[in-house]
Design goal:
526 residues, alpha+beta, Multidrug efflux transporter AcrB transmembrane fold, Alpha-Beta Plaits, Multidrug efflux transporter AcrB TolC docking domain, DN and DC subdomains, 3 domains, 5-stranded antiparallel beta sheet, 4-stranded antiparallel beta sheet, 18 helices, 15 strands, 17% strand, elongated
């Protein structure tokens, strides 16, 4: 195989450049995170049963959902919780390796079959299915600096004007709102209800019937007689009620004498929050916020920048006094960790280059193994992209460890070619390279297999620990394999292209310094 590329060095150069281009594209598209995701994928199902206690929610909502979720592919276990304010949550945990998007679709399909069995109030509120995340990428808080907006005002504004826009940002997964939207609060007075001989269900039925969006039809719609019907128009009626006064005017009943009882006669109506179960403060100020989770496979740094840009765009339309702050952000730690590892990687490459030059004592011979480094590293990034891995501290650490190992194969090839050239003054560089590869090709392959065999078992560890070691080991194995391939394909072509017969001036100078150093050392020892 090496002879083919020795005869066609330009073809070897083209392959190397192609590998590096693919690697660059992969680096740009690889997700960046501090550590690999070791937690198994989870999907959460959340619902609300207004007015129900925890036991009622457990019996009428949670148990029905749990029964329908049995038999999901890759499901390990599920957990649920019910709260006294009517909240229900079911979390389904899947095996590692399960596609979160596929799992979410399966859960949604199962949930559709359960919807008809859920209470009507729960169906009206809606049941949400989201890919869960164990931690937030960042928390975006919103405060009123001048105090002109209370927490309900802020929360309602971000629910109406900010939430959807942030959810559409590329890389954003689940978005959790810390705050509650506006709601119409109806405070029934039991004494007044009793005086009118009414019960709460009478109020509920009346509100449900009169606070509804209806389709009133059209005037002049077929099969009306178009010759006598000269008007053709859509009838528009009042939609959902908007103000407390409109709710107070809801008719509850009419007695035989014609007297009417309206909602305002038996209850106080006001605009308030949908729930009062949580309160957010920022430096003592009333606040509301968004907890933003990273989507699976997304780039943490790019997503953080995209969210910041979207918030800056939305801020131009904020009400007077409303501003945004970021009290929690994980990306500085990710950025610092990756920058430190990249710095170490560059330092390792520089040190390897210096050591090779000191011992090879030839600029041309030093450049050959050095050129192999970017080909192997970028090729490894391409494999990481194909394998679905990410740029994280562990994969970059494996890159650092592999620097010294991946140049070994190229050094062996270069040294053997130089040895043949020195022993045979009449042989050409091309023939020396052919002879060298004939002698050491099997050795290079054996070295790569032995080094890879050390790390192969780590790729088969199970559980969460296996997720960490798998990315580390596969990165090292890939770099070792690519190093051997480069030594068999690209390095011989470089030898033919760059190596020249005879010792260079630099090597002679270094030999003189080496001899002087050896003489000085021997004199001091004697």
């Amino acid at each position: 195989m090496s002879r083919f590329f020795i005869d066609r060095p330009i073809f070897a150069w083209v392959l190397a450049i192609l590998v590096m281009l693919i690697g660059v594209i992969s680096v740009v598209n690889l997700p960046i995170e501090q550590y690999p995701r070791i937690a198994p994928p989870t999907v959460s199902v959340s619902a609300t049963y207004p007015g129900a206690n925890a036991q009622t929610v457990e019996n009428s909502v949670v148990q029905i959902i749990e029964q329908r979720m049995k038999g999901l592919d890759g499901l390990m276990y599920m957990s649920s919780s019910s709260s006294s304010n009517g909240g229900a949550s079911v979390t389904l945990t899947f095996e590692n390796g399960t596609d979160p998007d596929t799992a979410q679709v399966q859960v949604q399909n199962k949930l559709q079959a359960a919807m008809s069995s859920l209470p009507e109030a729960v169906q009206r509120q809606g049941v949400n299915v989201n890919k869960s995340s164990s931690s937030f990428l960042m928390v975006q808080a919103f405060i009123s600096e001048d105090g002109s907006m209370d927490r309900a005002d802020i929360a309602d504004y971000i629910n109406s004007n900010v939430l959807d826009s942030i959810s559409r940002v590329e890389g954003v997964g689940e978005v959790q709102v810390f705050g509650s939207s506006y709601a119409m609060r109806i405070w029934l007075d039991p004494a007044r209800l009793r005086s009118y001989n009414m019960v709460p269900s009478d109020v509920v039925n009346a509100v449900r019937a009169q606070n509804a969006q209806v389709s009133a039809g059209q005037l002049g719609q077929a099969p009306a007689d178009t010759d006598q019907q000269v008007i053709n128009a859509t009838v528009t009626v009042q939609s959902y009620l908007q103000t407390p006064e409109e709710f107070k005017d809801i008719l509850l009943k009419t007695d035989t004498s014609g007297a009417q009882v309206r909602l305002g006669d038996v209850a106080d109506v006001e605009i308030g929050s949908e729930n009062y179960s949580e309160r957010s403060l920022y430096n003592g100020q009333e606040a509301a916020g968004l907890g933003i989770s990273l989507a699976a496979g997304a780039n943490a740094l790019e997503t953080r920048e995209a969210v910041g840009a979207r918030i800056a765009e939305l801020e131009t339309n904020f009400p007077a006094g409303l501003s945004s702050v970021v009290p929690y952000d994980t990306t500085p730690f990710v950025r610092l960790s990756i920058e430190q590892v990249v710095k170490t990687l560059l330092e390792a490459i520089a040190l390897v280059f210096i050591v090779m030059f000191i011992f090879l004592q030839n600029w041309r011979a030093t450049i050959i193994p050095t050129l192999a480094v970017p080909v192997v590293l970028l090729g490894t990034f391409a494999v990481l992209y194909i394998a679905g891995f990410s740029i994280n501290v562990l994969t970059m650490f494996a890159m650092v460890l592999s620097i010294g190992l991946l140049v070994d194969d190229a050094i062996v090839v270069v040294e053997n070619v130089e040895r043949i050239l020195e022993e045979n003054p009449d042989i050409s560089v091309k023939d020396a390279t052919v002879q060298s590869m004939g002698e050491i090709s099997k050795i290079v392959i054996g070295i790569a297999l032995i080094l890879s065999a050390v790390f192969v078992p780590m790729a088969f560890f199970g559980g969460s620990t296996g997720v960490i070691y798998r990315q580390f080991s596969i990165t090292l194995i890939t770099s070792m394999a690519l190093s051997a391939m480069v030594a068999l394909i690209f390095t011989p072509a470089l030898c033919v292209t760059l190596l020249k017969r005879g010792k260079s001036h630099e090597k002679a100078v270094l030999n003189n310094k080496k001899a002087s150093l050896a003489g000085s050392t021997a004199g001091s020892l004697s």
